[in-house]
């Protein structure tokens, strides 16, 4: 379209020869500018401006083209002539300063803006001048403008926020803190706006220390707004004793009945400092016995104590293994934890807090202490008495899993089948229950019923249960011509569930040696490697996996095998070089694997370990 327009100009030059046709010439100049022919555009802009110098659009376009061509002398001359005609137009001084600044004459730019600031000593005009300075990142000059504007205006809070932002950009954090402190003092209702302005800088140690030092000078013992901000800053700086004392003060003065301290304890726990969180909970339990928050405090305390025990458990057990044996456990600690949960149950019977406490007790007896009768008793309390609780399906799921583990498949089926009457199945536990119901059918050699449930679960998108269901379906479908070994596998998987690893291992070896199905053999060999790993026989596990890959290059579990091998090398054999090699091979051969993202993360972690 542009080319056609230009051709018309060439063929019919008389079109623009008529007086008063400046607008068309102006449009032509703009077309040249858009096409990148700045010099030709400039010639036409100069022509139209010379003929109509009062036209603001012509003036603006000519100045812009001078700047684009870096003809700064032309821009300065143009702007100065314009200023002589309209000395009250503050924008002209702003533009003149920009031209000087872009030309490298920063001192002249500053002088122009400062003179204009003295002439137009009004906060609106000063804000306009600061805007021009900011457009060319002349932050120090913009700061001076906002400082002047802050003095001359009644809206000082606005300019304090602007100055705080500019000081932060230029890493003058102490000055930024001073401005925000000014806002808090001048307009206490802005406290949450100030808080939001602080958060982006909490990860910068220099900023954090500057904000703390400034706010500490503003009487936080009397001004609770500064105490509130300091509590956040102390926590982020991990000055937990100072934060603890600050939140004690806040809670007492504002009569929060423990709420401030409870929130502080939860933030500290989330940051990983469980011991400090427990210290705060101990204080709350000793000093806020009549608080309406006491049930939440007690439950949070128990959960934090459990998190502390779990941290020790994770440190002493190989949870990277798909199948593992519990190695060590702080049994007295878990019994103390049960006492804490029992106290909640006794104080607040039939409440959701009490029901959750019952579930936590059941899980501790089940998963940690292996005191199964006590676990069953607590699961049953929920499944029989609280079917409307949000913890009901958790209790059913774990109670059913425990029943399977004990070998009571019929009991598990009864528990699971009762949940299928529930019409609202949005809870993710509902699908896990269906999966374990399918396993019950499988363990009882009812492959058809198991396949029906697994098939429905496999159609769920982006769900771990769907992946598990699909994997088992593949095993079923690949073993249609080997029903004997498939039924044998059902019995073996049942034994693994019951933690009878030794007998299960022998059975898997028999299937591996006898099945004609490559896929079933690959699946079984992977399970063999998992059980060998559970027994700490890492070298044999690796050999099994390597042999599986060699015997069947088309193994559908290849990426899973390589990832598992890397885990064994890393955590079991402590051979980080071979662990990295396995991951790199996985990425090279299977770039679209579901393990790809994990691979990249783990390769970086392994390189840090070896560097």
Question: What would you say this structure looks like, in words?
Answer:
The structure is a single chain. By secondary structure, this protein is an all-alpha fold. Helices cover 76% and strands 0% of the residues. Helix 25 packs across helix 26 (464-478). The longest helix is centred in the middle third of the chain and has 23 residues, at 294-316. The two termini are 61 Å apart.
Summarize the structure.
The protein is mostly helical and 611 residues long. The chain has 33 helices and no strands.
CATH architecture of the domain at 348-474: Alpha Horseshoe
Oligomer: single chain
Radius of gyration: 37 Å
Strand content: under 5%
The major beta sheet can be summarized as: none
Q: First CA to last CA: what distance? A: 61 Å
Number of helices: 33
Number of strands: 0
Which residues form runs of ≥5 with pLDDT under 50? 1-19
Query: Overall 3D geometry?
Result: extended
Helix and strand composition category:
mainly alpha
Query: Helix amount, in percent?
Result: over 70%
Average pLDDT, rounded to a whole number, is: 86
CATH class of the domain at 348-474: Mainly Alpha
CATH superfamily of the domain at 348-474: Tetratricopeptide repeat domain
Main features:
33 helices; extended; disordered N terminus; Serine Threonine Protein Phosphatase 5, Tetratricopeptide repeat; 76% helix; mainly alpha; 611 residues
Secondary-structure topology with pairs:
Layout: H1 2-11, H2 22-35, H3 38-51, H4 56-68, H5 72-85, H6 90-102, H7 106-119, H8 123-135, H9 139-152, H10 156-169, H11 173-186, H12 191-198, H13 205-216, H14 224-236, H15 240-253, H16 259-270, H17 274-287, H18 294-316, H19 331-347, H20 352-368, H21 372-385, H22 392-405, H23 409-419, H24 428-443, H25 447-458, H26 464-478, H27 483-497, H28 501-514, H29 518-534, H30 538-551, H31 558-572, H32 576-589, H33 596-610
Helix pairs in contact: 2-3, 3-4, 4-5, 5-6, 6-7, 6-8, 8-9, 9-10, 10-11, 11-13, 13-14, 14-15, 15-16, 16-17, 17-18, 18-19, 19-20, 20-21, 20-22, 21-22, 22-23, 22-24, 23-24, 24-25, 25-26, 27-28, 28-29, 29-30, 30-31, 31-32, 32-33
């Amino acid at each position: 379209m542009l080319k056609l327009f230009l051709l018309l100009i060439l063929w019919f030059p008389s079109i623009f020869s008529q007086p008063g046709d400046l607008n068309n010439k102006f449009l032509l100049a703009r077309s040249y500018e858009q096409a990148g022919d700045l010099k030709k555009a400039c010639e036409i802009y100069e022509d139209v401006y010379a003929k109509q110098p009062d036209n603001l659009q012509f003036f603006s376009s000519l100045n812009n083209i001078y700047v684009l061509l870096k003809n700064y002398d032309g821009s300065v001359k143009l702007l100065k002539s314009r200023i002589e005609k309209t000395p009250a137009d503050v924008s002209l001084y702003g533009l003149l300063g920009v031209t000087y600044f872009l030309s490298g004459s920063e001192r002249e730019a500053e002088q122009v803006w400062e003179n204009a600031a003295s002439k137009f000593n009004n906060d609106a005009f000063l804000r306009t001048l600061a805007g021009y300075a900011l457009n060319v990142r002349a932050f120090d000059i913009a700061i001076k403008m906002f400082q002047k504007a802050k003095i001359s205006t009644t809206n000082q809070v606005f300019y304090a926020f602007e100055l705080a932002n500019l000081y932060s950009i230029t890493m003058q954090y102490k000055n930024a803190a001073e401005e925000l402190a000014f806002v808090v003092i001048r307009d206490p209702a802005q406290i949450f706006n100030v808080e939001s302005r602080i958060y982006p800088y909490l990860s910068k140690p220099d900023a954090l220390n500057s904000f703390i030092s400034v706010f500490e000078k503003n009487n936080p013992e009397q001004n609770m707004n500064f105490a509130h901000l300091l509590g956040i800053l102390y926590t982020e700086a991990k000055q937990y004793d100072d934060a603890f004392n600050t939140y004690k003060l806040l809670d007492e003065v504002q009569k929060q009945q423990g709420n401030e301290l409870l929130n502080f304890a939860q933030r500290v726990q989330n940051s990983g400092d469980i011991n400090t969180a427990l210290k705060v909970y101990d204080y709350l339990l000793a000093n806020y016995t009549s608080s309406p928050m006491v049930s939440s405090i007690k439950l949070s305390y128990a959960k934090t104590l459990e998190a502390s025990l779990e941290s020790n458990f994770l440190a002493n057990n190989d949870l990277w293994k798909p199948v593992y044996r519990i190695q060590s456990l702080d049994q007295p600690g878990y019994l103390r934890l049960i006492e804490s949960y029992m106290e909640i149950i006794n104080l607040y019977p039939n409440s959701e807090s009490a029901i959750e406490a019952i579930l936590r007790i059941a899980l501790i007896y089940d998963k940690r202490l292996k005191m199964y009768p006590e676990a069953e008793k607590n699961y049953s309390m929920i499944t029989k008495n609280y079917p409307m609780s949000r913890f009901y399906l958790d209790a059913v799921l774990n109670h059913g899993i425990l029943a399977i583990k004990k070998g009571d498949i019929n009991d598990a089926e009864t528990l699971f089948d009762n949940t299928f009457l529930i019409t609202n199945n949005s809870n993710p536990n509902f699908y896990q229950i269906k999966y374990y119901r399918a396993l019950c059918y499988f363990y009882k050699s009812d492959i058809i019923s198991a396949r029906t449930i697994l098939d429905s679960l496999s159609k769920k998108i982006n769900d771990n249960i769907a992946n598990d269901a699909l994997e088992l379906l593949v095993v079923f479908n690949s073993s249609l011509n080997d029903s004997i070994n498939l039924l044998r596998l059902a019995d073996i998987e049942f034994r693994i569930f019951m933690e009878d690893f030794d007998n299960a291992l022998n059975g898997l070896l028999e299937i591996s040696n006898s099945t004609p199905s490559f896929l079933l053999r690959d699946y079984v060999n992977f399970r063999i490697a998992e059980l060998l790993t559970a027994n700490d026989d890492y070298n044999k596990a690796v050999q099994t996996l390597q042999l599986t890959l060699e015997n069947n290059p088309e193994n559908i579990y290849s990426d899973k095998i390589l990832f598992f091998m890397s885990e064994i090398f890393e955590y079991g054999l402590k051979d980080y070089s071979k662990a990295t090699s396995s991951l790199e091979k996985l990425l090279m051969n299977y770039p679209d694997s579901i393990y790809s993202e994990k691979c990249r993360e783990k390769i970086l972690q392994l390189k840090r370990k070896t560097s």
